[in-house]
Specification:
Blueprint lengths: L1 H8 L13 H6 L8 E4 L5 H12 L3 E6 L2 H14 L4 E6 L5 H13 L6 E4 L17 H28 L3 E6 L11 H10 L6 H26 L3 E7 L14 H9 L7 H4 L2 H5 L10 E4 L3 E4 L3 H6 L2 H19 L1
Protein name: Short-chain dehydrogenase TIC 32, chloroplastic-like
Family: Belongs to the short-chain dehydrogenases/reductases (SDR) family.
Pfam family, one: adh_short
Length: 330
């Protein structure tokens, strides 16, 4: 209870920052980041756009993949207007499509850039049931499956970059405390909502996708440790902030809830993910901890449940063998 109160009022944690610290404050001590190349999904609005702005203003090369090139170009132009020397490259990417993810990675590799930082920030809360072109429920396809494949295909470049430069590579998966809300069998429910919309519930689907992010982070952290790679992966809950993610739930009730809770919400600058992305060397994700921006880790109450679920291997292997294997055979 005390830790929660400290978090809500922005009390500084072990890092020296609190939940009210902004991205500008977090990165100020790091100075210039001109040697860093970063990919930020969901970087055209909300938390992702603020993350992109601050990284670019510190000198990092920022890759902005987006489904809408128009939105990406507008975001780039806004940042360049503020920071004329910013290097921002926009590229096409639809995370709900495995083919689009593979094409994006091919184009990125063709540029010959290193890769130090991958921030998997993009998120979708689909109010209406939809299926991706790969036959997967759309929220799960976008929030988890696309990011899973993106990370897998970029991993070799990240490991090689860290070896050549000596700079620790970072993978940051933006998840949500809502992942604790999903208590059913992951694979069974995913199969159910991928074939029958009558069982679809938007909130359950979203929490499922966020739990998958946590499980993926846990499994990937284990593999990176086994590889002895100078790359770490962490997931975080950025706090509660009103972004475009809630645009499908706009209405009087939603507006009222956000108004009443406004004093407890984070602003976009406060919700940025840059503490985990840019602070001095960080260890790999520990599922006994939940990273909250600025305050540092504290016990994650969902750890015991996650620990009992043999799903980290199951999810990764299931999609790697079934979905990706099928695409390779086509």
């Amino acid at each position: 209870m005390l830790e929660t109160i400290k978090y809500l009022i922005g009390w500084p944690g072990p890092s020296g920052f609190g939940s009210k610290s902004t991205a500008e404050q977090v990165t100020e001590a790091r100075g210039e980041l001109r040697s860093i190349t970063a990919i930020i999904t969901g970087g055209t609005s909300g938390i992702g756009a603020e993350t992109a702005r601050v990284l670019a203003s510190r000198g990092a090369r920022v890759i902005l993949p987006a489904r809408s090139m128009k939105n990406a170009e507008e975001t780039r132009d806004r940042i360049v207007t503020e920071c004329p020397e910013a290097e921002i490259i926009v590229m096409k990417l639809d995370l709900s499509s495995l083919n689009s993810v593979a094409n994006f990675v091919t184009r990125f590799h063709s540029l010959g850039f290193p890769l130090n930082l991958l921030i998997n920030n993009a998120g979708k809360f689909a109010e209406k049931h939809a299926i991706s072109e790969d036959g997967v429920e759309m929220t799960f396809a976008t929030n988890y499956l696309g990011h899973f494949l993106l990370t897998k295909l970029l991993m070799k470049t990240m490991v090689e970059t860290a070896e050549k430069t000596g700079i620790q590579g970072r993978i940051v998966n933006v998840t949500s405390a809502i992942h604790k809300w999903f208590t059913d069998d992951v694979i069974s429910y995913l199969a159910l909502i991928s074939h029958n919309k009558s069982h679809f519930d938007a909130t359950r689907a979203y929490s499922l996708s966020k739990l998958a992010n946590v499980l993926h982070t846990t499994e990937l952290a284990t593999r990176l440790k086994q590889m002895d790679a100078n790359v770490t992966v962490n997931c975080l809950h950025p706090g509660v902030v009103r972004t475009r993610l809630t645009r499908e739930r706009d209405g009087f009730l939603t507006d009222l809830v956000f108004f009443l809770a406004s004093k407890l919400l984070k602003t976009l600058p406060q919700a940025s993910t840059l503490l985990t992305a840019t602070k001095p060397p960080v260890p790999n994700w520990d599922p006994t901890q939940l990273k909250l921006q600025g305050y540092g880790p504290f016990p994650n109450s969902s750890f015991l449940r996650v620990q009992k679920l043999p799903l980290t291997n199951l999810i990764t292997l299931n999609f790697e063998l079934n979905f990706l294997g099928q695409r390779k055979r086509k």
